[in-house]
Design goal:
Elements: H1 9-15, H2 30-41, E1 52-56, H3 60-70, E2 80-87, H4 89-97, H5 112-135, E3 139-143, H6 150-157, E4 163-172, H7 199-202, H8 206-220, H9 229-237, H10 246-252
Antiparallel strand pairs: 1-2, 2-4, 3-4
Helix pairs in contact: 2-5, 3-6
């Protein structure tokens, strides 16, 4: 497909997005922090519930603890580190102050829809912050690895009931220039009017994408061959979750995902 892309500074910032895992030392300015946090607040919020929060992690010992949870030492080196949190605790406190009984049958902030809604809002806020950081010439990496141990992360951050960690975001001045990672053909992700009726048409672009991904990893890891995209997906499809069950950790935080 011959792609004609419109270019402007915002689009080019997004098209050039890549994960940065090595940062130059030194803190970021207070004006940078204020800007990034304000931009995150401007992200869309379903029903205007503002049902997310973010923990800015500054203590070096706590950073090391999060790096251990994530299994990625570079987490501790990030000049600016956030954990975005689905947060119905604050709204519960607001509602209780207005006379709503959180233990009553009518209470819904602890249900599966609100849990999903709050997660969505947290991700939107994180993405807004990430994009703003890239526009300032900074680098970022989104940290799903922090969910390796949700209960440990909850304890480390002192998260109260009806909160749940969603993703982390490490930000700093880049100290590396990784190549752009390939993205699959648009025909495999964008469909018109309905999802493809047969898997053969859905996966028509997969062989070429497999080869592109394989070339990317061969160039990046010359001493260690990496599987093609489809092989990585197959491996992950049967990878053990090692106790990573959202239902159980969510229940520990007071959410009821069965309603």
């Amino acid at each position: 497909m011959n792609e004609q892309i419109i270019h402007n500074p915002v689009i080019d910032t997004l098209l050039d997005r890549r994960s940065i895992r090595a940062f130059k030392p030194g803190p970021l300015g207070d004006d940078v922090v204020a800007t990034l946090e304000r931009v995150a607040q401007q992200a869309p919020s379903s029903q205007y519930l503002n049902d997310w929060s973010a923990i800015r992690v500054a203590d070096p010992a706590l950073k090391e603890r999060l790096a251990a949870i994530g299994g990625q030492p570079y987490i501790a080196t990030a000049p600016l580190l956030y954990v975005f949190v689905a947060d119905e605790h604050r709204n519960t406190a607001i509602a209780a102050a207005k006379g709503v009984d959180p233990a009553g049958d009518a209470f819904t902030l602890d249900g599966s829809y609100r849990f999903s809604q709050a997660q969505n809002d947290a991700v939107l806020a994180l993405h807004a912050m990430e994009t703003a950081a890239y526009s300032l010439g900074l680098g970022c990496v989104v940290l799903g690895s922090l969910l390796n141990d949700v209960d440990g992360l909850v304890d480390a951050l002192g998260l109260p009931a009806l909160t749940y960690p969603v993703l982390g975001l490490a930000i700093g001045e880049p100290d590396q220039e990784p190549a752009l990672k390939p993205r699959m053909p648009r025909t495999m992700q964008f469909f018109e009017d309905a999802y493809p009726a047969d898997d053969a048409s859905l996966l028509a672009g997969l062989p070429a994408f497999d080869e592109e991904v394989h070339r990317y990893y061969d160039l990046r890891n010359t001493d260690r061959p990496v599987d093609a995209f489809s092989d990585q997906i197959a491996a992950n499809a049967v990878a053990p979750m090692n106790g990573r069950v959202v239902r159980d950790s969510a229940a520990r935080q007071g959410f009821h995902l069965d309603r």
